[in-house]
Amino acid sequence: MGNEERFPLKKYRQVSELRTQFQCEYRLFLRYKHGEQLTEWSQRGSKLHDMAANRPIETSSWNYYAKIVLFLITIAAGILWIML
User: What's the rounded Cα separation, in Å, for the pair 73 and 69?
Assistant: First the structure.
């Protein structure tokens, strides 16, 4: 017996796949019918996405100072441990 005979529903689509397919086709239909209409908010969103994608990652100087402070505390604790 093959998989198709044991599990006949495997060859059919799930309801969620049909819903997703309809949404994509309907958006395509609306794009063809009305064209690509950009609203003020979609333009702002696109600008924000572009800014986030092109912005260099800012490294914080706090991380650098935290490493120095941690190093100094470790040295001080080591010196106190040796002296006592």
Answer: 6
Q: What is the pTM of this model?
A: 0.31
C-beta separation of 43 from 51 below 8 A: no
Q: Please check whether residue 3 is in contact with residue 10, taking contact to mean a CB–CB distance below 8 angstroms.
A: yes
For residues 82 and 75, the answer to whether their CB atoms sit within 8 Å is no
Please check whether residue 10 is in contact with residue 4, taking contact to mean a CB–CB distance below 8 angstroms. yes
The CA distances from residue 22 to 14, 18, 57, 73, in Å, are: 13, 6, 39, 62
pLDDT(62) > 90: no
